């Protein structure tokens, strides 16, 4: 959720009713309760997605309707079991999910799980790259804005942060492409790597699918440079979206900590203003960043879908966009449910990290 | 008798009504840079609203017009001449589609935000006030949806409502509803938290003692006090609604070009143009999105900052500069009053 309201320091970013009630519990108990909360979250999302997607009718009509004669359509619907009562289908679907079976796509008949292993690493790579860009841009600029509060640099940076938020990733990507690929010709237009390096990297033994890692492992520096060149523009497009939010968070929180007594004490001891910002006020201001990181991951995954389509980056989002165009709603449902699980798990991990750093989160 | 009709947290409760209205009271409280940001935001938002209202007068052609008296429009023509911002690959006039797009955007915002406010506020009030198992379930569901990528929620809803393709009314309704589901948890969370807090206030208790019904307490006593932050969330959500609509359009879930103009859909079509160096089909709809969202965000953010004493710029010197004797810095009565008011809301 891209919300521009600054979270107050100490806000966990999520309501955890069960965790809140277990007051006085230790870290172990917190982790356990938080872990158990993953399941209802996933369950609710799966249930919602399933029933919402079925309200309109069966997926086969959506994908093939108009292209097949009515009797053949009916045959396929019956073969796939879509003519049975919805609740029967629902429980069957839950059973399948529990065994790790996410179904097969309608249009090209692939297992959805296999798709995740093929394309998931590409999305992971893109998100990691973007996160690096966001942190490198957001944190130093946020500190600068707080340091020069209400002065010209602050004003410029705040407008920059708003622009980051206001520019849709696909428009930012388009502008970057136009400038750096088409006009200047510095960087490749689209894709993850040249065909030659892609071949070299995918024929490796046990590839991770994260191209720069594979290139480094095999010592193929030419491919590594190629992969990096392809990664720059998508990472910047997606990273800037989050960078603006980090910038604002750091700014607000550094301003908050700069007003504390211990900063005043440091100032009276003659510590330079620069050192106060970079050493003293900076660390406590990072805690809220970690706590909102969970929500940012959701934002990034949503943005990754759009970025991947813009740059033809063959990841989960790119596939999702393709299946949407093909009206293959089994595939769409599979990818959405997978992403729901990823989001729930990453949120769990982020919450645990936040609890390790900041004891107040544990209640 | 409990009287919940406390004045809004404007600067001065005795000021005339006009000066207590949300945006105007914020304007009078602002100084320097913050006032500049608020004014810039209001100007951009105003321009957006006016463009949407007067689109039929401003646009040189219709949004789906492909020809005029001189024959068919050329395709992919560079800006200039009869087509100020050029034409698209399909032969549409870019300027006209950008202008008409404002109308689509504002309709979607109105539908989406109105529906999510109504549903979110009602659910938040009921859930927070009644508590119990209903509250628990609603909170878990809202959290689950809130944590999920909003674009994906919107995609699922768009599939549900229209199967992805639609006419103007259907498309606006589909996009609006898709965005609604994303926003309900936000309103729900805010209103619920406020309701839980207000439930313990003495005026609610006295209303109970006098025998007011639950519905009356929720609808009158708590509602009035819990909805103070809504203008802020409204402006922030309006900008997010535009971005979500554009994202849906970019993925091909937009409204067909023959039934309305939609910026995200135009950007989708423009994506293929970029590699051949055709910039005008994408740049202008994109700029329209950016300027509109910047305008709405500036307004929302200025209101947010002005409501938060930690962030509000001070009218006179404070902080590093030595405050003069007359400075109304922290500690003066006026400042303290505003601070408690804002903290309380």
Structure characterization notes:
- The complex is a heterodimer of chains A (363) and B (345).
- Chain A contains 16 helices and no strands.
- With 363 residues, chain A is mainly α.
- Chain A has a domain at 112-361: Orthogonal Bundle (MetI-like fold).
- Chain A is globular, with a radius of gyration of 24 Å.
- Residues 1-23 of chain A have low confidence and may be disordered.
- With 345 residues, chain B is an all-alpha fold.
- Chain B has helices spanning 17-20, 22-29, 32-53, 55-58, 94-130, 132-147, 150-162, 168-199, 202-210, 214-226, 230-253, 263-274, 280-307, 333-344; strands spanning 67-68, 71-72.
- At the A-B interface, α3, α8, α9, α12 and α14 of A face α3, α6, α7, α8 and α11 of B.
| Name of the CATH architecture of chain B | Orthogonal Bundle
For this structure, what is the CATH homologous superfamily of the domain at 112-361 in chain A? MetI-like
Mean pLDDT of chain B: 72
As a whole number of angstroms, the C-alpha radius of gyration of chain B is 24 Å
Model regions low in confidence, pLDDT < 50 over at least 5 residues of chain B: 1-11, 316-345
Total strand segments of chain A = 0
Q: H/E element string of chain B?
A: HHHHEEHHHHHHHHHH
The CATH class label of the domain at 112-361 in chain A is Mainly Alpha
Biggest β-sheet of chain A, characterized? none
Shape of chain A, please?
A: globular
The helix-and-strand class of chain A reads mainly alpha
CATH topology of the domain at 112-361 in chain A: MetI-like fold
CATH topology (level 3) name of chain B: MetI-like fold
CATH architecture of the domain at 112-361 in chain A: Orthogonal Bundle
- What pair of chains forms the biggest interface? A-B, 68 and 63 residues
Task: Name the descriptors.
heterodimer, A: about 375 residues, mainly alpha, MetI-like fold, 16 helices, disordered N terminus, B: about 350 residues, two-stranded antiparallel sheet, 14 helices, 2 strands, about 70% helix, about 0% strand, disordered C terminus, transport (chain B), transmembrane (chain B)
């Amino acid at each position: 959720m891209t919300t521009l309201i600054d979270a107050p320091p100490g806000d966990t970013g999520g309501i955890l009713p069960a965790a809140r009630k277990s007051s006085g519990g230790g870290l172990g108990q917190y982790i356990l309760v938080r872990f158990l909360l993953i399941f209802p979250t996933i369950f609710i999302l799966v249930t919602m997605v399933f029933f919402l997607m079925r309200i309109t009718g069966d997926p086969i009509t959506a994908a093939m309707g108009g292209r097949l004669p009515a009797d053949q359509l009916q045959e396929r619907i019956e073969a796939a079991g879509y003519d049975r009562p919805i609740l029967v289908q629902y429980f069957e679907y839950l059973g399948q999910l529990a065994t790790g079976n996410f179904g097969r796509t309608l249009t090209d008949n692939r297992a959805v799980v296999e798709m995740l292993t093929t394309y998931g690493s590409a999305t992971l790579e893109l998100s990691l790259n973007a996160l690096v860009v966001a942190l490198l841009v957001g944190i130093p600029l946020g500190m600068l804005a707080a340091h020069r509060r209400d002065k010209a640099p602050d004003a410029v940076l705040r407008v920059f942060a708003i622009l980051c938020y206001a520019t849709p990733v696909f428009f930012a990507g388009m502008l970057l492409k136009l400038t750096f690929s088409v006009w200047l010709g510095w960087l490749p237009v689209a894709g993850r790597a040249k065909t030659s390096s892609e071949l070299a990297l995918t024929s490796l033994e046990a590839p991770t699918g994260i191209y720069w890692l594979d290139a480094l492992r095999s010592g193929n520096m030419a491919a590594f440079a190629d992969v990096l060149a392809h990664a720059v523009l998508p990472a910047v497009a997606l990273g800037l979206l989050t960078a603006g939010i980090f910038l604002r968070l750091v700014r607000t929180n550094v301003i908050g900590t700069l007003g504390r007594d211990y900063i005043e004490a440091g100032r009276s001891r003659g510590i330079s203003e620069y050192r106060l910002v970079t050493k003293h006020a900076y660390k406590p201001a990072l805690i809220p960043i970690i706590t909102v990181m969970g929500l940012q991951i959701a934002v990034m995954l949503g943005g990754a879908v759009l970025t991947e389509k813009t740059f033809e980056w063959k990841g989960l989002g790119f596939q999702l966009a393709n299946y949407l165009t093909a009206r293959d709603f089994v595939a769409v449902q599979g990818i959405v449910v997978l992403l729901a699980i990823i989001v729930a798990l990453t949120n769990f991990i982020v919450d645990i990290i936040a609890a390790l750093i900041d004891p107040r989160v544990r209640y | 008798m409990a009287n919940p009709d406390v004045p809004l947290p404007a600067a001065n409760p005795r000021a005339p009504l006009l000066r207590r209205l949300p945006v105007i009271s914020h304007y009078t409280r602002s100084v320097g840079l913050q006032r500049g940001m608020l004014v810039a935001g209001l100007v951009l938002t105003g321009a957006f609203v006016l463009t949407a209202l007067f689109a039929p007068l401003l646009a040189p052609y219709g949004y789906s017009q492909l020809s005029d008296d001189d024959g068919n429009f050329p395709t992919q023509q560079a800006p200039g001449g009869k087509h100020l911002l050029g034409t698209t690959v399909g032969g549409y006039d870019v300027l006209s589609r950008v202008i008409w797009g404002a109308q689509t955007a504002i309709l979607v915002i109105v539908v989406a935000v109105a529906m999510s406010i109504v549903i979110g506020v009602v659910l938040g009030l009921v859930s927070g006030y009644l508590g119990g198992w209903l509250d628990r379930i609603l909170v878990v569901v809202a959290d689950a949806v809130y944590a999920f990528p909003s674009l994906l929620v919107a995609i699922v809803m768009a599939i549900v409502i229209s199967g992805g393709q639609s006419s103007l009314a259907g498309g606006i309704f589909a996009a609006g509803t898709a965005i609604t589901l994303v926003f309900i948890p936000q309103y729900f969370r805010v209103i619920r938290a406020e309701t839980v807090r207000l439930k313990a206030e003495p005026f609610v208790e006295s209303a109970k003692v006098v025998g007011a019904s639950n519905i009356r307490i929720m609808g009158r006593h708590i509602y009035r006090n819990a909805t103070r932050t809504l203008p802020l969330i409204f402006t922030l959500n309006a900008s997010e609604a535009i971005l979500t609509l554009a994202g849906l359009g970019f993925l091909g879930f937009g409204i067909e070009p023959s039934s309305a103009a939609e910026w995200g859909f135009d950007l989708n079509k423009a994506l293929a143009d970029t590699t051949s160096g055709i910039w005008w089909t994408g740049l202008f709809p994109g700029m329209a999105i950016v300027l509109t969202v910047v305008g709405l965000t500036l307004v929302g953010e200025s209101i947010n900052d002005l409501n938060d004493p930690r962030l509000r710029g001070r009218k006179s010197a404070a902080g590093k500069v030595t405050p003069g004797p007359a400075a109304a810095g922290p500690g003066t009565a006026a400042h303290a009053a505003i601070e408690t008011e804002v903290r309380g809301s």
